[in-house]
Write a structure and sequence with these properties.
Layout: H1 2-29, H2 57-60
Length: 84
Amino acid sequence: MTRDNARAAEQFKASQEQMARDIANASEQSPRPKISAPPPRPTATPTRKPVPIRPSPQARAQPQDTPQPQDEPQLPSAPRLPVR
């Protein structure tokens, strides 16, 4: 079993060396074109703070149908007896 592992390791090493040679030969035969620098990235615009939403003039105005305060306090209504 130890011999099998040693033989497998040798074969693996040989195949690695062969691949390294093949890659080197392929690189020499077809040189890669030089890649130009990427285009400049657009500058980021500064983020603006959100504008607070103000209520419209109609929403700020007091409603016209508001009851006016009365002089005497109102009591809960109860049935009244007729006056004789």
